[in-house]
Amino acid sequence: MTTVLTFSNFKGGTGKTTNSTMTGIELSRRGHKTLLIDLDPQANATNLYLKTKENESGELVTFEQTLMAGIRSGDIKSTIINVFKNLDVLPSSADFALYPRYMESVRKDYSERVKYLSELIAPWKDEYDYILIDVPPTISLITDSALYATDYAVIVLQTQERSLQGAEAFIQYLQETLVNQFHAPTLDVAGILPVLLKNGAPVDLSTLSKAEKMFGKENMFQTTIKNMERLKRYDVTGVTFKDQFDRAVQAVYKKVVDELLKRISEE
Ligand SMILES: Nc1ncnc2c1ncn2[C@@H]1O[C@H](COP(=O)(O)OP(=O)(O)OP(=O)(O)O)[C@@H](O)[C@H]1O
Ligand SMILES: [Mg+2]
């Protein structure tokens, strides 16, 4: 059975894509069959994974059909691209921004549109151990659909006031809208994953202690993500597995995945 995970926060640029893509890589390197579904029309996760595939295969990677075209034609399975062993991506592109409008023409009620994605991926549940969904930062049918299909949301909290507010608003939204209103069948929170801005500077410590008070210490990941230049560089180069800086990044995501799997197995 698949576990569907979504990394989220309503504040943009907090590390949703970075953490979901790096978690996907670590899960696949452990031998878990993993699919990342990119639902963000910015396609950051898609670009990162395709560059990573190019690094590993030495070939230029392009894709023939966009996710939106696949949805229109009823065949999105053939849109899936293999990145490397055990890791697949369902790529996004700018035209996915048309998804909410397209769904209006297909399903009359919003509450029915929200279920469409989870119906689409239901047949894949035997094929993957983990499905990760990367979402845009704004509330829309796209994020609602992802969260409706989610088993565990990981809330990415960058150590700054606005991200704290985004996380708080997000948790409230999960409860009031996704659970109470749309009756999301499996949605739960795996925890709040802190992403440090300044690697332990006062702003980090004060935001972390505020977050502990707000959300409860038991709901916070003990693993924190430091600010690492190498992660930023992956935007340009794709993920690399070459030197000590790559290994430092991988060591962090080993800890993240250890803790994530422990947290969700204890739920
Ligand atoms: N731990 C980190 N250390 C250094 N840079 C980071 C780290 N995490 C994320 N970044 C960089 O910060 C930027 C924003 O991160 P990312 O794209 O993951 O955020 P996001 O929440 O997905 O953004 P959006 O809301 O636009 O989807 C990227 O350039 C990324 O490389
Ligand atoms: Mg993103």
Secondary structure: elements and pairs:
Elements: E1 3-8, H1 16-29, E2 34-38, H2 44-57, H3 67-73, E3 81-84, E4 87-90, H4 99-106, H5 110-113, H6 116-121, E5 130-134, H7 141-149, E6 152-158, H8 161-181, E7 188-195, H9 202-215, H10 229-237, H11 244-266
Parallel strand pairs: 1-5, 1-6, 2-4, 2-5, 6-7
Antiparallel strand pairs: 3-4
Helix pairs in contact: 1-2, 1-11, 2-10
Bound molecules: adenosine-5'-triphosphate and magnesium ion.
Residues 16-17, 40, 44 line the site of magnesium ion (MG).
Give the tags.
globular; 7-stranded mixed β-sheet; 15% strand; binds magnesium ion; Rossmann fold; alpha/beta; 267 residues; single chain; 11 helices; binds adenosine-5'-triphosphate
